[in-house]
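Good morning,

Attaching, inline, the backbone tokens for the sequence recovery test we're adding to the shared suite. The designed sequence is right after.
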């Protein structure tokens, strides 16, 4: 193992590694609840609840672990993960509450999941010896991956693509804050500060309707496109002229 790897891995104490597992499980349970809530809205049956809840709960972590290439994804080796995702799905299936209550709960859970998983993704990435940039990237992927897979399975535009308050932006901010705290030697503060930031930032963004700007109102134009358009217009004009003034055939 190289010196760089040892130094990077030593940034995450053993106690934080243990806490990271419980944060990961909290994210699995919370995101499975979110998946169950979406399944209820879509009118799915019990099997649909379980499938959507499991994809939602485990998707982000599996993507992270596959990209890390540091062994089999933890969801397949730690037997606590799948039952946790199933439990989250069943809770929503069995407990019926009003739509307004689900909406409020959904927003809070969504914010909490962003915090849990962005922090977890950062700590796991740094623990295997990678640097700050991969840590921010995989922290973000962990936070938004499960929800994106859930939305794709259900044929919806993933929330990470916008129109739902700041989403990936919150994950990036949390991941960046956690990385800074780890490099400053206070990873425990980074965990608490990251989750707090996710809750405050995400809920505020939803409350005030903050969104990133969409595409500017312009269309790319190239010389080839202009030439083709000019040729098409000329041909159409010539055709109209021939219809207005038909040629006289010579006897």
């Amino acid at each position: 193992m190289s010196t760089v790897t040892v130094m990077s891995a030593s940034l995450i104490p053993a106690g934080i590694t243990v806490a990271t597992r419980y944060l990961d499980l909290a994210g699995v349970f919370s995101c499975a609840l979110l998946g169950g809530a979406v399944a209820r809205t879509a009118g799915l049956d019990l099997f649909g609840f379980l499938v959507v809840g499991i994809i939602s709960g485990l998707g982000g972590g599996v993507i992270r672990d596959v990209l890390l290439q540091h062994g089999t994804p933890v969801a397949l080796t730690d037997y606590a993960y799948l039952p946790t995702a199933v439990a989250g799905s069943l809770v929503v299936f069995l407990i019926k509450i009003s739509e307004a209550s689900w909406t409020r709960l959904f927003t809070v859970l969504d914010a909490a999941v962003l915090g849990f998983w962005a922090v977890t993704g950062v700590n796991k990435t740094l623990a295997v010896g990678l640097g700050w940039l991969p840590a921010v990237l995989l922290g973000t992927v962990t936070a938004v991956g499960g929800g994106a897979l859930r939305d794709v399975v259900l044929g919806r535009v993933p929330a990470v693509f916008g129109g739902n308050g700041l989403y990936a932006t919150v994950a990036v901010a949390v991941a960046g804050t956690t990385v800074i705290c780890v490099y400053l030697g206070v990873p425990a503060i980074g965990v608490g500060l990251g989750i707090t930031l996710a809750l405050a930032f995400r809920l505020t963004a939803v409350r005030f309707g903050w969104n990133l700007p969409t595409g500017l109102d312009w269309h790319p134009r190239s010389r080839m496109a202009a030439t083709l358009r000019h040729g098409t217009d000329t041909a159409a004009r010539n055709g109209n002229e021939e219809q207005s003034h038909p040629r006289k055939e010579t006897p």
